[in-house]
Amino acid sequence: MALVVSGLDYGHPGGEPLYRDASFRVEAGTVVGVTGPSGSGKSTLGALLAGDLRPRAGEITVDGAPLPGRGFRPVQLIHQHPERAVNLKWRMRSVLRESHAVPRETLDLLGIRSEWLDRRPGELSGGELQRFCIARALHPATRYLVADEMTAMFDAITQARIWHALIGIVRERGLGMVVISHEPALLDRLCDERIPVERLRGPAGSARRSRWSPAARDAAGSA
Ligand SMILES: Nc1ncnc2c1ncn2[C@@H]1O[C@H](COP(=O)(O)OP(=O)(O)OP(=O)(O)O)[C@@H](O)[C@H]1O
User: Residue of the nearest CA to atom 25 in ligand 1?
Assistant: First the structure.
């Protein structure tokens, strides 16, 4: 059981190639960190894994089946910007219900207060709204989670609480998880393995790589 990326090619329309023949896997029950400089393609990778973007070539499979093009997405993406992931006109009760009947226990673990359920996204702080996006992503049929700078808007104590709750659920359900983050300490704490995004560019990515510092190249090369 794994989320498997094989021979992935992708570049945004009109942009330079970001991924060439990239391959890696995330075993169910493991947490994999993805690191890389700003603009290197981490969020793009998250969108590809979740099925929001389609690869130009290559394949992404989920527990042996191709990533579905429609219907429920077994790879759920938790965005860096929660306000882009929800209908801003709906009350939070409906935002949650659109995904599934989130158990009260999960709401409590994520620190979601009952009074927030009757508000709209614009009436919550970024961190409060993000808790709802995490709860939504924990659909019973979710197999893998991709967390893209998920806790960037939280203070350190809340960040630690949210990660503790989420990793507990992930481990309990045997989900696989990809954590995209700029924070090495966070990745050290959470992840079983780290993948520098540079490693996924393949030999053809060396044209872009040459614009970066020798230290970054060495780090990528030794990974
Ligand atoms: N929809 C798009 N159309 C064209 N180019 C895009 C699009 N989205 C992102 N890009 C470009 O693709 C590259 C990778 O962007 P991406 O957001 O994946 O990087 P990132 O590593 O997540 O960056 P950050 O750490 O700053 O969030 C950037 O050069 C960006 O400008």
Answer: 38
Q: Is 131 in the pocket of ligand 1 (CB under 6 A)?
A: no
40 lines ligand 1 (CB under 6 A): yes
Cβ–ligand 1 distance for 16 under 6 Å, the answer no
Atom of ligand 1 nearest to the CA of 40: 21
pLDDT (tens digit, 9 = 90+) per residue, 28-85?
A: 999 999 999 999 999 999 999 999 999 999 999 999 999 998 889 999 999 999 999 9
Residue 57 CA: distances (Å) to CA of 9, 22, 73, 134, 156: 5, 10, 20, 30, 40
d(CA 90, CA 38): 32
Query: Using one digit for the tens of pLDDT, what is the confidence trace for 147-163?
Result: 999 998 899 999 999 99
Determine the CATH number of domain 2-222.
Answer: 3.40.50.300
